[in-house]
Amino acid sequence: MNPPLIRPSATADLPQITAIYEWNVLNGTGTFELEAPDLAEMTRRRDDVLGKGLPWLVAERDGQVLGYAYANHFRPRRAYRFCLEDSIYLADTARGQGLGKLLLAELLALCEAQGARQMLAVIGDSANAGSIGVHRSLGFEHTGLLKASGWKFGAWRDVVIMQRAMGSGDTTAPADGS
Fold this sequence. Notes:
29% of the residues lie in helices and 33% in strands. By secondary structure, the chain is an alpha+beta fold. Strand 4, helix 3 and strand 5 (118-124) form a beta-alpha-beta unit.
């Protein structure tokens, strides 16, 4: 098996990205969306992230997209401009291969190089051991729990908040500290 390639996403990846997210919406609790967005909506979402100058990556092996990750602003208000939230989704057949960690590590490096100071993980379902473990392995710390904040698959689901400082974190003012 060839090693995976982590690279910037391309427009041609969107059908595979959409299919991966659809599987996660319909079968997983990592997202609290209940209806899978179509290709047009996933294109709009990717265009929004890229339009902000933020990364959207894919993990590919032998031309097959196995997962993707992107960062977006945690909230739209300007004061949050140095605080990002990551999102990572894998194809069901790609779980357990270390792809999530590879995607997240590259995402962190790119975001830190762009001046981000904090990365948040807002993880659907406190039973999502895979995502929690990947984030912990890359230095994220548990910072909060939103109990029973989502209802999916006939049960209440918690949201786990994890956080990791990047660069000098909160020890210095950012270059654009205005």
